[in-house]
Prior knowledge:
The structure holds 2 protein chains of 2 kinds.
Chain A: E1 3-9, H1 13-21, E2 27-29, E3 41-47, E4 56-58, E5 62-66, H2 71-76, H3 78-82, H4 87-92, H5 98-103, H6 106-111, H7 118-124, E6 128-132, E7 136-139, H8 140-145, E8 154-160, E9 165-172, E10 179-187, E11 193-198, E12 205-206, H9 208-215, H10 219-229, H11 240-260
Parallel strand pairs in A: 1-3, 2-3
Antiparallel strand pairs in A: 4-5, 5-8, 6-7, 6-8, 9-10, 10-11, 11-12
Helix pairs in contact in A: 9-10, 10-11
Chain B: E1 2-7, E2 10-15, H1 22-28, E3 47-50, E4 53-56, E5 69-71, H2 77-89, H3 99-112, H4 118-124, H5 136-150
Parallel strand pairs in B: 1-5
Antiparallel strand pairs in B: 1-2, 3-4, 3-5
Amino acid sequence: MISIQEYRFAESLDEALALLDAGKRNRVIGGGMWLRLGHAGVRTAIDLSRLGLDKIEDAEGEVSIGAMASLRDVETAPCLRELFGGVLSESVKPIVGVQFRNMATVGASVYSRYGFSDLLTALLALDAAVVLHRAGEMPLDEFLRNPPEKRDILTAVHIRKDGRRAAYRSFRRSKTDFGVLNVCMSVSTEGDWRLSVGARPGRATRCPEAEALLAAGDGAGAAKAAAENLTYGSSLRGSADYRRHLAEVLTLRCWDALREDGAEARDSEPTDAGRDEA
Amino acid sequence: MTLNFALNGRKLSREIAPDETLLQLLRDCGMHSVRSGCDTSNCGICTVWVDGKPVLSCGYLAARVEGRAVTTLEGVKDEAEALMRCLAAEGADQCGYCSPGFLMCALAMFRELENPGDAEMRAYLAGNLCRCTGYASQMRALAKYAEGRRSK
């Protein structure tokens, strides 16, 4: 269990950042989802819930998701059900239950860069950026690979509305469990393909080799490339070899879904109707 | 620290520890329908509402409900009556331990969704584990309750 000595509702982001900087054991509390399973001794818990950071705004050029929006907010926001093939909404649906998703926040999922994160896998396949109170806005991809050295406060995630269509697939040993492997694929109206693979079990990462093959129309080749070019590890939920195999299968399923959605002209190759049942 | 919140419509002020869970607080307030199950924010047994939304009280910091409204099964007894009867009639409460959490999530669902279908109900209640019934009897009870609501 995480122990907390002092609980503070920040009245401004500047105050929250000052509290964070005031001590190594001071922490921003998102949904507090690790309260029971974590072990940290927190000096001051910083609560951001009074700063109006829980909004999801659909503006002309981009969607902004506030850091304190819950995963349930992401699931139910009408704009996120529509945009990007609804992948953001879809990606969070299998996470534990409605009650859990009412508590877990977008900011904590993204800032903590969790390897298992369904949401990060989906966001990474879109043109997303994180907004940090100290460091400013930076592409999500860069944030995942090279986060700023100084601790910061994530205030929002911005996603550019570039007409992107997307597909998300995750494989789970049982419903509501963590994903064994998560895959998200997207294509913009300009034909910019992106592929991200998460829960490897390392954190979500894009696969440039596979993306080049997707752009060339070679879905099967891209699926193989995703399996061969990314690193996979073993954990309690699956071996590295199993994950590598899943990466190929799920990438192909995303490809099929996007093609069926009209991204590419269909060829005469027969499709396996049972594929999407897993 | 001093916490001010509303419990089942009644304003309360309590002294709490900064890392006290909502579950502990509610049990201390005599709300014995709120039970500890997995104690790791997974099983749904400790479900209560904060500002009308179902949450897991075992993993929810009590400090967070400052200025908010908390509802336990004790606060929605009348609303729960018909669904409780359906659960009992269908044998969906074998040991009964998970029933309060299940009722709280199911009632939240019926408030949120106009007329949920089978798949929607399964998805909404996926976070409520029951080790006795195998869920078939619960689904029958929900269908019966939903039917009753529609015919009203």
